[in-house]
Every structure is written in C-alpha cells, then in structure tokens.
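About this split. The held-out portion is used to measure sequence recovery: a designer receives only the structure tokens and must propose an amino acid at every position. Recovery is the fraction of positions where the proposal matches the reference. Here is one held-out target exactly as it appears in the evaluation file.
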C-alpha cells in the first residue's frame, strides 16, 4: 500500500502544476490512474478500521473475561475474513486495463459439430458467470452451427474489473466426453479458443488507416421473421496488415453493426500489439514467450471421470456441473494469485 500511496501523492502533486493539462492525453491517463489507485487504498483504510475495532474488542473481552463480547466477535470473524480475502484479490487487479469492461470472443476449433457444440457450452458458461456476478453481458455477434452449437460468438461484458477477472480465460479450452453426435458412443476431444480483450474507450487511441481496412457486408443468417435476410446488414471488418477480422450481425442496422465491429476490432488490435510488445521484451531478456491465446489452459473431462483442471495453476475440481453453470471463480482467483506471486 505504501507504493500506491506514494504514487497517489506524486500524481496529485503533478496535477497541481499549471502545465498539467497542456498534454491532455497524458493528463487524462494520470487522472484515470489516480482513480484506479484511490479505490483500493480507500477500501483498505476502511477495512483496517474494522480490523482495528475488532482487535480492541478482543482485548476488552480478554481483559474483562466477557463471554458475550467474545461470542459476538466469533460470529463476526467469518464475514471480516471474507472481506479481507476479497480485498486482497482486488489488489491483484492493478494492470493498466484491469478496471475496464471486457470483450470475450469464442471460436470453435476444427471438428465441425463437436467443437461448435463445445463453443456453445462455453458461451452458456460465461453468460452464467456474468449473471452470478451481476455483470451485464450482451452478445455482440453469434452464429448458429450447421447442426448444433455455434460457429462463434462475441460477448460484451460490463461490470467492475470485468477485464481484470476475465483476462485469465484467454486460451484454448479442451473438452473430453462421449459424443452425443456419435452413434457408436465413442469418446471425442474438442477444442475452442477464448479471446478476452479490454473494451477500450476514447482515452485509448488505436490508429487504423482507412486503406488498412476491408469491409464486407452480407445478409444475416438464421431465423427472424419478415425482416430476416432482407438487407445486407451484417458486417465483416478485416484489418489487412494483421489479418485480424471481426463479424457483427446482431443489429438490423448496418451502421450499428459497423460501429460495433470497429469497436471490437480496435480491442483485438490493442491486445495483438500488446502481445507483440510483451513477446519482444521477453525475447530481449532471454525468456520464453508464452502468449495465452495460443496455449491449452484448461481441460473439462466428462468421461471416463468428471473433472475440470487448469494446466497453468493446477487448480482442479470434480464438481463439473458447477463449473459449467458459471462456477469459474476458483480458477480465476488461482490464476490471479499465481500472477501476483510472479510464478
């Protein structure tokens, strides 16, 4: 906390200078950082007060042998412990964009119906997780599979530190089960990729030249009554230098789909360039670069036993149903703790 308080003091001192707003972009970045730092410091200050009060009552109970105060403190201890643990976890969300909303994209791997069905299971799992946390989740794009599942989906997740929590989910997710689509009842392995990027606002500029974009329009597929497939409202936006593309088809208005596609593309490009920088720094320091987007991070085994295991932290559980219903916190928290420890 001393480091955070020192940085707060430094930013406050800088903001009082006459030339602080000369560079508006830098000033806005400083103000955003100040707000990010103040929140956990104020929370810790309040929590420290509660802990100090509890210690005072504990000493009083011991000195006066007051069983009533002791019983009251014992009853309050679990809630206070939970508050401390929650605040410790929040302190791990100190990345530059951890406080932002998130954009989560799910793409099935090779395997047709099998992987498309797996992608739809992950889609449901993340929606359940958002619902449990009180986050607002909106499907920006989703396309049904040929027989079952989905060919892909993009979700906007809005809530406190949504990106900070969900960034741990980026990577390859592996499913092992007896396939419901195999008449012989054989075991299948399916893969799906999850990409999580921060939902950027106007304070972060990602420059895209017009000649670097290719925009294709087409008719949205799927059911929809008399308005379905009548206009070329769906948009595919491709960034030519990187090959990164996004598709948005959920709005009937092509204008709205273009705006949403550009928003998602900027988020994906920001993450792409950041990953390139991280890889270059690791190379310069002689480290092996590990970009989460390209690695299997977790296995979900439905057969011959039931287990979910995270391969980065070794966190695992046999309560498969709870995980598929959105119970991801144990994996997210294990990842954050490991990252904070520098492992």
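Reference sequence for scoring:
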């Amino acid at each position: 906390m001393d480091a955070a308080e020192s940085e707060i003091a430094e930013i406050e001192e800088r903001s009082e200078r006459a030339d602080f707003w000369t560079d508006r972009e830098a000033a806005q970045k400083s103000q955003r950082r100040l707000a990010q730092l103040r929140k956990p410091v104020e929370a810790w200050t309040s929590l420290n007060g509660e802990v100090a009060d509890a210690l005072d009552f504990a000493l009083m109970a011991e000195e006066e042998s007051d069983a009533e105060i002791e019983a009251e403190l014992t009853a309050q201890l679990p809630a206070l412990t939970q508050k401390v643990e929650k605040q410790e976890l929040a302190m791990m969300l100190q990345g530059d964009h951890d406080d932002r909303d998130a954009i989560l994209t799910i793409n099935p791997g090779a395997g047709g119906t099998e992987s498309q069905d797996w992608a739809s299971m992950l889609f449901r799992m993340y929606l359940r997780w958002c619902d449990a946390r009180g986050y607002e989740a909106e499907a920006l794009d989703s396309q049904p599979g040929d027989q079952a599942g989905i060919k892909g989906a993009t979700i906007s997740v809005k809530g406190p530190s949504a990106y900070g929590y969900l960034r741990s989910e980026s990577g390859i997710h592996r499913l092992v089960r007896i396939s419901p689509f195999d008449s012989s009842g054989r075991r299948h392995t399916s893969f799906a990729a999850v990409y999580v990027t921060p939902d950027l606002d106007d304070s972060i500029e990602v420059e895209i030249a017009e000649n670097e974009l290719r925009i294709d329009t087409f008719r949205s597929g799927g059911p929809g009554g008399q308005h379905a497939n009548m206009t070329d409202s769906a948009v595919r936006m491709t960034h030519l230098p990187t090959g990164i593309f996004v598709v948005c088809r959920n709005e009937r208005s092509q204008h709205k789909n273009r705006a949403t596609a550009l928003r998602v593309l900027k988020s994906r490009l920001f993450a792409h360039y950041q990953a390139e920088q991280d890889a270059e720094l690791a190379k310069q320091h002689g480290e092996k670069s590990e970009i989460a987007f390209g690695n299997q991070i977790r296995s979900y085994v439905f057969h011959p036993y039931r287990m979910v295991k995270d391969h980065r932290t070794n966190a695992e559980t046999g309560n498969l149903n709870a995980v598929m219903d959105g119970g991801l916190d144990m994996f997210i928290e294990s990842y954050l703790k490991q990252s904070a420890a520098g492992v």
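Annotator remark: The two ends are 21 Å apart (CA to CA).
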